[in-house]
């Protein structure tokens, strides 16, 4: 059984490419409100669960002890472009933890944007771990580890107490048996646990509603979610979908991308959680699906819907800027979303 | 009906992503030797058919009249990185045609590699059409147009005599009815005609064998193919699959990529043509399939097979260079290729 086509990429009169995948939308009571594809299939959420990975930092009191700002908490939940504001923020978190970038174990990565890459090349420098899109998260890990008196070295390893805490949090909040047979290594060297898409959506419904969580955990997740809404640039950066959506919709839509075609969202006004996985890993696919979901569930006006068309009906252009095709929701996805209504 | 999974992307113990698609391998007699997926489905070949789009340049005598070198003919068939050697080559072709880059209608594109982008940014310049990955092809178009006395302006339009010639060539060599309902606009503004995958493979079998072609056309295609084999860097550039394969295998494997997951090959020693389309458009998928095909059909040694593993079993690494997974042929593809044998 194959998952349904969710997104079509047209060129002229024909569909040139297509993206299959899975979508689950779950409400605060845990009921599945929309299901496309094999929603019971475990998928690696990758960076989409950074908000949960940030919980030890907040729940241990480390964030308060270090005096982290809301902007810094947003950066801890981010997959950022490695722009100057992101790099400065990660350095600030490390300094508040009494550490420096030497302690980062996420590995080096070039900044996402050309001008930022230029700056490094012109200075004849190689990219360090501080430019890694996960450096905010790792700075947060180190802040938590330092506060809790845990070993700093090897904080990324599966058997480090911090990663064991995160594992327990993910298993608890998703209700999924996260055994070692669903454990891979993420690009930034920490464990990533494959979670059924419907369970992932359920976890984000808890973020949206607070239901099914201890008061302390609900408070911590609300704090992180509101920090992202207040500082959307810190969550991703220039021209990024996460940033643009949260700039426009504020607290109405917490959205987070993950590598290999994952997107998750918490919609607090509706108490809904959303999880998307594109089979082939394409970001253009996951963004188009999430934008279509937001058009149906969050957009309040034609202007909102038109704004989301940047991703839900993204133009495929020639190098001269002529529209040659469109990346758009399939009939299957559009019909399912219509049936969902508001 | 969905096309089969051809490539799996693993992470730790699980398949994280997968690529479905179509593969056809056709022999010189026109018989299909391998068929996976809907090989009758028309797909846009995009840049994979540049060797055919170069035929008017050669067959009209324009290439000889202008004194184009073999390296320049390779560039005419290329999708290049916009490196210095490519830009210089495209300028040389234009100069030999008595034109300059102002005549290019392919649209601007940044060079593929960071250092080349830097150079433009440092000079505070925007990328011109000369850096477009198709500038060699377009320089060749202009050289042909100038020689034949056709209008220079709008040489990219579907109703320009040059594009009509190319349309007729593609219809003839593929035997496919290339009506307007299969015509899209390519990224470089010229028409792209959707062709059934098996017909595309058949056309490349003709390139490989010369069978089913007029002597003049067979000679022209052999000249273009040998030019690419002799000048692989001009066909793509640094770290590119097309370049690396032709550097290693010379005339034994003419390979050409196309956007949105297309790869084609002509294997002259075997008289075979190969055409691949990945449903979702992913290049990592099309490269993995082509590498697996070449391992079965062209590799002569363990070293050859190991060389092709760079793409056929590409490591998925963490930012610290630890192997976290693999991009690899699916069981379906591996079994079909094994059955094909040598």
State the separation between the terminal residues of chain A, measured CA to CA: 30 Å
Strand content of chain A: 15-25%
Percent helix among the residues of chain A?
Answer: 40-55%
Low-confidence stretches of chain A: none
- Interface with most residues: A-B, 54 and 54 residues
Number of domains of chain A: 1
Order of helices and strands of chain A: EEEEHHHHHHHHEEEHHHHEEEHHEEH
Q: Structural class of the helix and strand makeup of chain A?
A: alpha+beta
Number of discrete helical segments of chain A: 15
CATH class of chain A: Alpha Beta
Query: How is the quaternary structure best described?
Result: homodimer
For the biggest sheet of chain A, the summary is: 8 strands, antiparallel
Rg of chain A, rounded, reads 19 Å
What is the fold-level CATH name, i.e. the topology of chain A?
Beta-lactamase
The CATH architecture category of chain A equals 3-Layer(aba) Sandwich
How many beta-strand elements of chain A? 12
């Amino acid at each position: 059984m194959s998952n349904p086509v969710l997104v079509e990429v047209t060129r002229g009169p024909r569909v040139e490419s297509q993206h299959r995948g899975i979508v689950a939308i779950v409400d605060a009571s845990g009921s599945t409100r929309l299901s496309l594809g094999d929603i019971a299939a475990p998928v690696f959420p990758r960076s989409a669960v950074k908000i949960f990975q940030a919980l030890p930092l907040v729940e241990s009191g480390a964030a308060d002890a270090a005096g982290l700002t809301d902007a810094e908490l947003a950066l801890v939940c981010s997959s950022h472009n490695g722009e100057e504001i992101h790099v400065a923020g990660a350095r600030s978190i490390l300094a508040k933890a009494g550490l420096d970038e030497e302690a980062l174990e996420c590995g080096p990565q070039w900044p996402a944007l050309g001008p930022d890459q230029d700056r490094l090349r012109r200075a004849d420098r190689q990219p360090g771990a501080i430019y890694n899109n996960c450096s905010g998260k790792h700075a947060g890990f180190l802040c938590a580890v330092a506060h809790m008196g845990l070993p700093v070295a090897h904080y990324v390893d599966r058997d480090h107490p911090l990663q064991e805490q995160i594992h327990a949090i993910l298993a608890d909040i998703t209700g999924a048996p996260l055994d070692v047979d669903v454990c891979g290594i993420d690009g930034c060297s920490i464990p990533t646990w494959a979670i059924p898409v419907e369970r992932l959506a359920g976890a984000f419904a808890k973020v949206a509603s607070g239901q099914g969580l201890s008061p302390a955990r609900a408070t911590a997740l609300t704090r992180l979610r509101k920090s992202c809404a207040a500082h959307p640039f810190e969550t991703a950066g220039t021209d990024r979908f996460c940033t643009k959506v949260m700039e426009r919709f504020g607290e109405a839509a917490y959205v987070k991308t993950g590598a290999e075609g994952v997107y998750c969202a918490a919609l607090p006004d509706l108490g809904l959680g959303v999880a998307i996985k594109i089979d082939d890993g394409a970001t253009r696919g996951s963004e188009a699906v999430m934008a279509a979901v937001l058009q149906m569930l969050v957009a309040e006006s034609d202007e909102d819907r038109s704004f989301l068309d940047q991703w839900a009906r993204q133009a495929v252009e020639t190098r001269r800027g002529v529209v040659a095709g469109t990346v758009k929701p399939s009939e299957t996805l559009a019909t399912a979303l219509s049936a969902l209504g508001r």
